[in-house]
TrEMBL record:
Ranges annotated as biased composition (Acidic residues): 425-436
Pfam families documented for this protein: Adap_comp_sub
Organism name: Choiromyces venosus 120613-1
Annotated region described as Disordered, given as residue ranges: 421-468
Protein name: Clathrin adaptor, mu subunit
Length: 528
């Protein structure tokens, strides 16, 4: 029967052939970890997350992921559902980061091998994934503690060998909810919600959107005592004419929920999320929204972005320059204000100063424009920009525009290109003038006029070739990147979040509730 057979973790920086972690759930595989690592390195880049190795005995399927310069390998010699193994590897990474802290480093795994071994045995039973929720694992495996490390350094014993009278023991009562541990206690009861959207769009030279989508994530950080029952209501602007929970043609398309969400409540009342949350950080849901109007007619209102680009190519006396004009506007960024009356959300600006911006004052930051350059470009000349700085690395030019002081206005970038000269290309070579050695006869005036006409045609032909060569050296598009804090492109917002039931929270306890909105431009292509 197919199962997860083993897990090997290698540190890829610096490269090492000896694994820092080696764990087998069944009998030791016939192929060693070092051999699997060598076969993995022998594969051409970019490597697939699933590699078939027919040269091993028996043939092996090698699953692999890379996280923070750590290479996770899991071999299997029988057929198995690929997504099962890959999802399990990602769960291992999430659990290790939850226990050992982020970023996950090889040194942390080596220093806490006793805890890592316990986690792997709990997460996978005889090769079958079992308990993979961090909250449930904390009921049976204690996270590393300072007291355990101090006692271990004094006694010379690992933390698992220290008598139980010196260390806290796991809870005796396991939680009946797989994703939430039992006996949760917090001094300050707080709820934090982060709505993050990533925009991808393609814009025609006329400025019309060819495609525009927004992929959103609802991140949650729950610090509530007991077992709370929460109800969160999402809302979209009425101008979008979308219904939450509608099919992909409108509203939240392709929603993905955490197991704690009650799907029956969502189907009956689209936009309402009823759930008992895990303790700590988790992703409550993800979704996708089509930002284009239904039917995508020319008369329909097009999406608005805070950063727009106008790209002109083939300008200048020699048609060897291109210019980009960027307009940064925040006038249309309507404040995303919560409508909670009894207990409104906090702005979280005082508790998260690094985040900047707020729902009442959206801020555009991290604006950069990238111009991919064709291979024909040798270098740039006479480059200037009215604001910010630029960097040219040969294949592209990146222009970064600072937005300090809530900058809103127009910035200009202009540069010329120098085209490479290739061997065998005589389009730029000047024809040699013939030398009069007495063999030439005088020509009459009409013939001279004809010769001048031929020179004009030749000159026009050369200018046409040079212009076509410059056209081949012009960028075909501009890639726009930016982030807006306090605003979502889709207009989705948290309308309400309240505790509707549960136990253990205490009478009269009103938890602090905060929400943040963040939009990032993932891949916005402006064609010219």
């Amino acid at each position: 029967m197919s199962a997860v057979e083993a897990l090997y973790v290698f540190d890829s920086f610096p490269p090492a052939t000896t694994p820092i972690l080696q764990h087998e759930w069944r009998s030791r595989p016939a192929t060693t970890a070092a051999s699997l690592h060598s076969l993995y390195k022998a594969q051409p880049s970019p490597r697939s997350s699933l590699i078939y190795l027919p040269t091993t005995s028996p043939p092996t399927l090698l699953f692999n992921i890379i996280h923070n310069n750590l290479l996770f390998l899991s071999p299997t010699t029988s057929e198995i559902e690929p997504l099962l193994v890959l999802e399990f590897l990602h769960r291992v990474v999430d659990v290790l980061e939850d226990y050992l802290g982020s970023p996950l480093l090889g040194s942390k795994i080596e220093a806490n091998y006793d805890i890592v071994a316990q986690l792997l045995n709990e997460m996978c039973d005889d090769g079958f994934p079992f308990t993979t929720e961090p909250n449930a694992l904390r009921d049976v495996v204690l996270p590393p503690s300072l007291m355990g490390k101090l006692l271990g350094s004094v006694t010379g014993l690992p933390s698992t060998s220290i008598p139980s009278s010196f260390t806290p023991s796991p809870t005796q009562t396991l939680s009946t909810i797989p994703w939430r541990r039992s006996n949760v206690r917090h001094t300050n009861n707080e709820l934090y919600v982060d709505l993050i959207e990533l925009i991808t769009a393609t814009i025609a030279p006329s400025g019309r959107f060819l495609s525009a989508r927004s992929n959103g994530t609802i991140a949650f950080n729950c610090k509530l005592s007991g077992v709370p029952d929460l109800l969160m209501t999402l809302q979209t602007p009425t101008s979008h004419k979308q219904k939450l929970g509608a099919p992909p043609t409108g509203g939240l398309g392709f929603p993905v929920f955490h197991p704690c969400v009650r799907l029956s409540r969502w189907r009956e009342h689209p936009g309402e999320l009823s759930f008992v949350p895990p303790d700590g950080k988790f992703v409550l849901a993800s979704y996708e929204i089509d930002l284009l109007p239904s039917g995508n007619s020319k008369s329909a209102i097009q999406p608005q972005l805070p950063v727009s680009v106008e790209l002109k190519t083939g300008i200048g006396s020699l048609s060897s320059e291109f210019e980009a004009r960027v307009l940064i506007s925040t006038a249309f960024l309507a404040p995303t204000i919560n409508t909670l009356s009894a207990n409104p959300f906090g702005s979280r600006s005082s508790r998260s100063p690094a985040f900047g911006g707020s729902s009442n004052n959206p801020a555009v930051e991290e604006v950069s424009i990238t111009f991919p350059l064709p291979p024909a470009v040798k270098t740039l000349t006479s480059t200037r920009c009215s604001r910010g700085e630029f960097h040219h690395d040969g294949r592209k030019v990146t222009w970064k525009i600072p937005t300090t002081g809530a900058f809103s206005g127009t910035a200009t970038f202009r540069t010329g290109v120098v085209v490479k000269s290739y061997g065998g290309d005589d389009s730029d070579e000047e024809e040699e003038e013939p030398v009069d050695n007495g063999e030439y006869q005088d020509v009459q005036t009409p013939k001279t006029t004809k010769a001048n006409g031929g020179n004009d045609e030749e000159k026009a032909r050369r200018e046409k070739k040079a212009k076509r060569k410059m056209e081949m050296a012009m960028p075909r598009c501009a890639l726009v990147a930016f982030s807006v804090k306090g605003w979502l492109a889709s207009g989705v917002k948290v309308d309400n979040l309240k505790v509707v039931g549960g136990k253990g929270l205490g009478e009269g306890v009103k938890p602090y509730k905060g929400v943040k909105y963040l939009t990032k431009a993932g891949d916005i292509e402006v064609r010219c």
